[in-house]
Design goal:
mainly beta; 2 domains; four-stranded antiparallel beta sheet; 15 strands; rod-shaped; binds calcium ion
Length: about 240
């Protein structure tokens, strides 16, 4: 309880005494101060956007792929490739015999060939990579076969030749009807041989080009020993 003689503390600040004298005005000012301080302590921020998921890269595709023997010991691969959300950047053909072909162009429309050194079945694999590094591959088998026997009739003599499976040799038989007159092998590096048909019958010379699969026959034939010999000129069997 304040004594009537107690010292009086006066607030010298102008206006404060007026507020003290009017409590309602003081309360209003305090509310303003609270509102301002609350606003300063935490500035309004916009809600941060939720992170958008990165769409997954789709792998490239391989369609309409075929591998088939197209020529003498040669296979051809054809295929269509694509990428739904990008581009096919590169491709490689694994021919199954240790050889590969890098597709530097025409990756979306593959059309290339390879020559094999041996007749057998091979697994050919096409691999493609898109511009984001995703890969796809497809494998097809191809059977490289020895060409069928080819026969060349010369007078009464029949000459038949057949490639061996390693494409480095050729088996040659000369016969009259079912009678075998001579047999020989044309070897790589020695493509030309003299082949006696029979005693006094003359001879044939064979030259096989192992790159093109071409057998050239030339020489002379003597139906009757030591009598009239007729040149047969040159004929070609293409495998
Ligand atoms: Ca892609």
């Amino acid at each position: 309880m304040e004594s009537p003689n107690a010292p009086v503390v006066r607030i010298a600040a102008p206006g404060v005494s007026a507020l003290v004298a009017h409590p309602a005005r003081l309360l209003a000012c305090l509310l303003v101060v609270v509102a301002i301080s609350a606003g300063c302590s935490k500035s309004p921020t916009a809600p941060s956007p939720s992170p958008q998921p990165t769409p997954a890269n789709s792998a490239p595709t391989i369609s309409t792929m075929t591998v088939a023997q197209s020529a003498y010991r040669t296979a051809r691969i054809t295929a269509t490739t694509g990428d739904g959300d990008g581009q096919v950047a590169s491709g490689t053909v694994d021919w199954g015999d240790g050889s590969t072909t890098n597709l530097t162009s025409g990756v979306t429309s593959v059309n290339t060939t390879h020559r094999y050194g041996r007749a057998q079945a091979y697994s050919v694999t096409l691999r493609v990579v898109d511009d984001d590094g995703a890969q796809a591959q497809l494998t097809r088998s191809v059977s490289i076969t020895v060409p069928p026997e080819a026969c060349l009739g010369i007078e009464v003599v029949e000459l038949c030749a057949r490639s061996t499976s390693d494409f480095k040799n050729m088996e040659v038989a000369v016969r009259a009807g079912d009678v075998s007159l001579a047999r020989a092998t044309v070897s790589d590096g020695n493509p030309s041989i003299a082949l006696p048909l029979a005693a006094g019958f003359g001879r044939l010379t064979l030259a096989h080009n192992f790159t093109t699969g071409r057998l050239i026959v030339s020489g002379e034939v003597c139906p009757v020993p030591f009598l009239v010999c007729k040149p047969v000129g040159s004929k070609t069997i293409q495998f």
